[in-house]
Give the backbone structure.
Amino acid sequence: MSWLFAHAAGLNPIEMALEEPKDKALHWHFFEKGGLFSEGLGIHLPHEPVFGFFQVTKFKILLLIAAVIVAVSAIYLSRSIKGGRLPKGKYANFLEVLLLYVRDNIARPNLGDQADRFLPFLWTTFLFILTCNLLGMIPAPLGGSPTASIAVTAGLALVSCIAINFNGIRANGVVGYVKGFWMPIDLKGGVIVSLILFVIEFLGVFVRSAVLAIRLFANMYGGHVALAVLLSFIITAAKVGQENGYLWWLHPVVSFGAVAICIALSCLELFVAFLQAFVFTLLTALFMGMATHAGHGHDDHGEGHDDHALADHAQPASAH
């Protein structure tokens, strides 16, 4: 749908995705020209790399902001439950709900008895991606989501890929991990078929990580493109109304319709922000469970685990 909207407005989404990082490396647009500020509003970012190799860009600054938000939130929640206390306050309870959901619906079903060991990584992944997605819901002065950049999602997928393979090798050893991709077939010519399947399965480890990056990028970037294109219809309708007096009604009608649809799409974008953070974390946990073979032991999991709050981890056994 986003692709159709973009082409209807004469835009090329692929070209925009490639050109945007170049533009953001030189200038951070808070407000575009022709809106609240006739000349636009923004700041110039350093043209030359810092320390000879580090280029300051808009998305890197937004990633740093997201990291600070996640770190402060984690410290705040940790102090709230210190000593076995229950979290107090709307924000602390909201964070607890999110983290418990990740633990009970992502980590434990896919990682079984090893879930608690990987929880810090999965919690950080979920909160960081969610924060990056939600930053894109703020039109100004931030005006962008880091996960709407393929470079950012590729970096996140790379971290996920390293974690998956590292823990797979750690659990089974190098030989045992690689051997797990081999499927013996006791038929004539079965070795050739097994070799083909081995190559497909081995490459699938990296293909799955690439799909994680593309899925997150496409969903976040596509939503922003759809909103931008819909709002651009208002400008187009205004120009047509000025050039053709008998179409004076076109501008208010199109404006009302575009704004109404944008409000609905923004609500959908908010849902997608949570959904994509959930999907990325879920698939990471699933692939990690497959790599470590921890998922085979999750059937008997859940006995004796009736804790309903993060604070339970901090309480002694006699307090339950």
The two ends are 51 Å apart (CA to CA).
